[in-house]
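User: Protein folding is very new to me. Would you mind checking the protein record under this note? It all follows right here:
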Amino acid sequence: LNEQTGSLASPEVISDDLFDAMQFVTVIQGMGGLGKTTLAAMSATKESVRSHFVDGVAWIKLGQKNFRNDNFHGSSEISHLSFDDYKDHLYSICKQLNRIPPDFGEISFMPGDDDSIREERTLHAFQDAHQLMANLLCG
């Protein structure tokens, strides 16, 4: 949604953002029903967009979840995305990109673990899975 005009961006605008050397992230946000998913899908399926990503384009649907941008940087607050859901999304990306997924492991808790220990183990599991994916995709 263009904040100045109040209109939705077009797939062409999104595509231009994807190829701007100074634009590292393109975010599509807004209230429900505006067509954000449709716009993203239209952009991601354009051959002119896909051709710039020689290793492929993967699509995952996260749905209505709350996330924090600092999950992998020592945040004491873990997102509402469970580790099992996160692994499922990583497996989906691997499948779409024809990659063999690594073993992302499990989180083990002990009886008597307090919340801070559970949170720390969960954060480490997310970080480890993130690193495994980075190694797989970036070598």
Notes: Residues 68-78 have pLDDT under 50 and may be disordered.
